[in-house]
Design goal:
This protein has about 230 residues and is an alpha+beta fold. The protein is built from seven helices and seven strands. The strands form two sheets. Strands 2-1-5-3-4 form a five-stranded antiparallel sheet. A two-stranded antiparallel sheet has the order 6-7. It starts with a helix and ends with a helix.
């Protein structure tokens, strides 16, 4: 038994002997949140589609993608990466899931990640600005960052027109898949992934909020000046 296990047992013993039931629940909940993460190896439905790498070409942008596509010697066809059906993505740091997100923008998963790779310009949202910064911090600390995807499968379903209905192949709404993934994660970890700030009711780090606001102000100022 290591020191961490001894400390946990000591805390639990103290809680049992001295705290009321409500406070005990808080202690147990906080310990569970602190100690449990979900490893990508536990996920059975996601496929790795890219490594996320640091961008060091003098650009102000932070990251770039190395796609696991056929031209790079892998078995993923380009049409899979550019399929316009909805998709859910997982950002994985050192085999641990850090974010679950989803999108149905055009251009497939490549289209989804274009803004993240260019988030240091224009007028980005705090998410588009912040995710590349968080990823780059991990990369600079020696971590491996990977991107996994769960595509929205197409199914046959009745589609109504003006005069009746017919069976057509349609894609499942990606939000249903994204919500299910988040529910599954929370059922194990008792919280959402670390970088799912909105779902966790947590603010983005202040330096990211301030940097995003400054970039948007600069973009707005330059736009007015160039009119």
């Amino acid at each position: 038994m290591d020191m961490g296990e001894n400390m946990s047992i000591g805390i639990l013993g103290f809680a049992e002997k001295t705290l009321d039931s409500n406070t005990k629940n808080v202690v147990y909940s906080n310990m569970k949140k602190k100690n449990i993460t979900m490893n990508i190896n536990q996920v059975k439905t996601a496929k790795k589609v890219a490594d996320i790498l640091p961008r060091n070409d003098g650009s102000k942008n932070k990251i770039k993608m190395y796609w696991y596509e056929e031209k790079n010697g892998y078995d993923i066809p380009l049409k899979y990466l550019k399929d316009n059906s909805g998709r859910v993505y997982l950002i994985v740091v050192d085999d641990v899931i850090y974010k679950i997100g989803g999108s149905q923008c055009k251009g497939g998963i490549k289209g989804t990640w274009g803004p993240y790779c260019g988030g240091m310009g224009g007028s980005p949202s705090v998410r588009t600005y912040g995710i590349p910064i968080l990823i780059r911090e991990k990369l600079d600390n020696g971590s491996k960052v990977e991107l996994y995807m769960i595509p929205s499968e197409k199914v046959f379903a009745p589609v109504k027109g003006l005069f009746g209905e017919e069976d057509r192949q349609v894609g499942i709404d990606f939000k249903a898949i994204e919500d299910k993934c988040k529910e599954d994660y929370k059922s194990i970890v008792s919280d959402y992934p670390k970088w799912n700030f909105q779902e966790r009711n947590q603010p983005w780090p202040r330096y990211i909020q301030e940097g995003c606001n400054k970039l948007n102000e600069e973009t707005s100022f330059n736009s007015r000046r160039n009119r």
